[in-house]
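Key result, reporting period 2: structure in, sequence out.
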């Protein structure tokens, strides 16, 4: 034992030793086992959780609840509501299709949608971070959902490119898809020989066999080749429209919700205005009631 220790000093001193072992131990500093080496892993986990919580707080948020609600409304209504749902309804039994659709919507669709929104607001992470937060082994689900979103983006951006193409073409009068194009040919006229040329206007044969809208879609918009073995050339008009569509998506992703949230006031409400216009226009067409009854009649 060192000479300068408390016990050695008491042995060589003339004072009467009255302290017991318990008194000596009481003079020592208490050991905090929570700060020992055995609890290093737990402290590291708490620090990691605190860092993740700090990152979640730094995640951009909506400026107001109204923007968030409009974003969910815009997410719920898209191009599929205009053409996909009526097509599926008519193809799969009309009114009979609506019965399982409504049942699954109430039992599965709406609860899962609400659960997704609630978890997203509570954890405030992306699709990858949410599943990793729930369980690290489920992180692959988040990556898979991102890949699915990429495929959906490829699909929908092509449709947006078509819409942009038709939007620019709609500034013409008359509309290019309202009537078939006319081919002008110079032919020789005369009884005994070529005495002149007369211009004869002939409607495009392919358009006459189908319709003006079908001809414009396949020959002007898509510019398809005659067969699958022919690669054809680059449709530069549609390529530019597709580039514009991806540029819009890229700017929305780069700017984030701080700027795109203000766009929600227009982009979320405008589809409902378009649907209302289509509904009014469709009801004014001849035989509209018969068409609606035919689509919703159970088969």
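The corresponding designed sequence is given below.
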């Amino acid at each position: 034992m060192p000479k300068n220790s408390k016990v050695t000093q008491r042995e060589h001193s003339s004072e009467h030793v009255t302290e017991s072992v318990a008194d000596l131990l009481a003079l020592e500093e208490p050991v905090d086992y929570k700060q020992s080496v055995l609890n290093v892993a737990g402290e590291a986990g708490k620090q990691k959780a605190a860092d993740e919580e700090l990152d979640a707080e730094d995640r951009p948020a909506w400026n107001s609840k109204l923007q968030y609600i409009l974003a969910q409304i815009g997410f719920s209504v898209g191009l599929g509501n205009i053409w996909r749902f009526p097509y599926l309804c008519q193809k799969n039994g009309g009114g009979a299709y609506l019965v399982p659709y409504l049942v699954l919507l109430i039992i599965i669709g709406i609860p899962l949608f609400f659960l997704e929104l609630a978890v997203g607001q509570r954890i405030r992470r992306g699709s990858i971070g949410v599943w990793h937060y729930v369980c690290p082994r489920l992180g692959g689900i988040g990556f898979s959902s991102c890949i699915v979103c990429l495929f959906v983006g490829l699909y929908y951006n092509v449709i947006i490119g078509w819409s942009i193409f038709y939007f620019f073409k709609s500034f013409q009068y008359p509309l290019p898809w309202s009537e078939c194009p006319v081919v002008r040919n110079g032919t020789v006229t005369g009884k005994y020989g070529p005495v002149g040329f007369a211009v004869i206007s002939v409607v495009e044969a392919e358009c006459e066999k189908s319709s003006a809208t079908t001809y414009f879609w396949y020959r002007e918009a898509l510019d398809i080749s005659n067969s699958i073995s022919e690669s054809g050339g680059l449709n530069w008009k549609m390529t530019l429209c597709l580039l514009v569509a991806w540029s819009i998506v890229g700017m929305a992703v780069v700017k984030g919700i701080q700027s795109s949230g203000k766009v929600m006031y227009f982009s979320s409400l405008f589809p409902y205005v378009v649907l209302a216009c289509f509904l009014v226009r469709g009801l004014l067409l001849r035989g509209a009631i018969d068409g609606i009854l035919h689509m919703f009649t159970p088969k």
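Confidence is low (pLDDT under 50) at residues 14-18, 32-38, 188-193. The first helix runs from residue 6 to 12. This case is discussed further under Risks and Mitigation.
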